[in-house]
Amino acid sequence: MKRSILFDTETTGFDPDMGDRIIEIAALELIDDLPTGEAYHVLIHPERDIPSEATKVHGFRIEDLEGKPKFAEVADGFLEFIADSPMIAHNARFDFKFVNAELQACGREPLDYASRAIDTVEMARKKYPGLPASLDALCRRFGIDLSQRGTHNALLDCKLLAEVYVELMGGRQRGLGLAGPSRSRSMTDGINALASRPPRKMAPPTAEELQVHEAFVSTIKDAVWHRE
To answer: Transmembrane ranges (predicted)?
Structure first.
């Protein structure tokens, strides 16, 4: 039985080296690549302002986080939840960099990227070379409902990414028959929720995706021509 953690963060900006901080962490437990229903979610006071540009992305203002714990106060709970499991994220280097900056700032050991990170962006680019690998694009490709995604939200993004990850790993058929009497109720419910859905029809590529794919094919052709 393989345990992994799928997670996402929201932040005040793009670079912890420039003083940006985490304001939200969400994480879902997966067993054998399927969600169990066990989750970790916390809002965090960043101990600084939130630029308006960041608020436009995730919707959080500093006023929304007044009274929320600081990262140092939630660090142990987060580390206990993730344990030593592999960590799955969309653009994993971004999330790992922020989490490690926060961990080091409060005297904890950073997570080892090389041994623990699984990046779904890299997975998508290998499976669909030349096509967009954003979470929105992958949800459209797999027919996953995006209607609730107005702004970025770590918990919602984790739930969407869990569905994307199942598809990248081989789709719902892979999960059939995994639930057994020794599994917890949350594990059974998580698998049944996925297995009860009808197989998704692959959405046709959008005009944007076709344009990117044509550009990619053209680049490959040019490279082959120059090599010859």
So the answer is: none
What are residue 72's phi and psi, to 5 degrees? -60, -25
Choose among 135, 168, 202, 140: nearest CA to 30: 168
Residues 6+ apart with CB under 8 A from 7: 25, 26, 27, 28, 82, 87, 88, 89, 95, 158
Instruction: Write down the mean pLDDT value for the chain.
Output: 83
For residue 183 the two structure tokens come to 């599994």
Instruction: Name the 3-class secondary structure at 87.
Output: strand
Which pLDDT score is estimated for 209? Answer: 56
Band (153; pLDDT cuts 50, 70, 90): confident
Of 58, 152, 213, 226, catalytic: 152
Kindly report, residue by residue over 50-62, the tens digit of the pLDDT: 999 999 989 999 9
Catalytic-residue membership of 45: no
- C-alpha 197/C-alpha 194 separation (Å) is 6
Instruction: Enter the DSSP assignment of 197.
Output: S
197 alpha-carbon distance from chain centroid: 22
* 47: Cα separation from own chain's centroid: 25
